[in-house]
Structures are given as structure tokens and as C-alpha cells.
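This is your field. Pick holes in the following sequence-structure pair:
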Amino acid sequence: MTPTAYVIHSSKGRLRIQIHEKKKDASFFASMKKHLKQLGFIDNIIVNDLTGSILMTGKEIDINKIQSYAQKNSLFDIQKKKKENLISFPTLPKPLTKILTEPIDNLNDFIKQTSNNNIDLAGMFFLSLMGVGTFQVIRGNVILPSWHTAFWYSLGIYATLLSKQHT
């Protein structure tokens, strides 16, 4: 009976299969390397008997041709890895910061869309706080911290806005 090979990774020009039942069988993997070299489209074959894997690379790696060749020569049968063999990670809950900032992000997107990207939420806060600060100075209310606080906050928001534009 031919052993079952599972596809561990497959991408353009790269295929890794694993044959669990032949782990630590160095002669089997040496034989597989010898057989698979006969396929002209495989440039490089790396076998690892300790992990039971075969890595094949080349410009034109074709899993169907490898499967056909392997079955024809009774080397192995390729199967896709079953979902129960894969490690699954639990879905993490959404972080509190994401929950709190999502509505603000949505409002920012709305403002940007409405103004054709001419202004955003940070820009609106900057202008508003600069206006409050200017209003306080004009009224003669220069007692700290009212106008000073408004300018300070506007500068902080402006600096944040600049840093986001440069990242």
C-alpha cells in the first residue's frame, strides 16, 4: 500500500508535502528524492526524514503532474491536509480601544468624505480649539489656563495630525 502524502504548503514555484508514516525512514526519502528528480520541472528537492517532509521548488511546480507521477510509480498518494490536522486558534475579542475608537474613526471617515478630503476630525478640533483660544484672548480672558489650555490642546492635535501624515 502506498503511503499518504499531505500538502503542507503550496504556492507558485513551491510545494511541501509530508508523509507521516515514513518519518525517520532515511532510505525511503532518499528514494523519493531520486524518483522525483526525474521530473524535469522540479529544480530543487529537499527531503527531511526526521519531519517526514519533501520540499520541491521550481518555476513550473505542478501538483497534478507530481500526483500523477507518484501514483503511476506507486510512490505516494497526495491528499490535502484535513482541517482537523490543522491548529486552530480561538477568535480573540475585540480590544476595548478598538471598540471605543471605531465610532470616532467612522465620524472621521464621514467628515473626510463630505469635505472631499479637505478636512478631517483632527483638523476640525484644531480649528475649533484655536478659535476658542483666540476668542478668550480677544475677550481679555488671558488668565491661565483657559486660552492657554485651548492653544496647548490644539497644538497637540496638530502635532498628532502631522505625525499620522508622515507614517
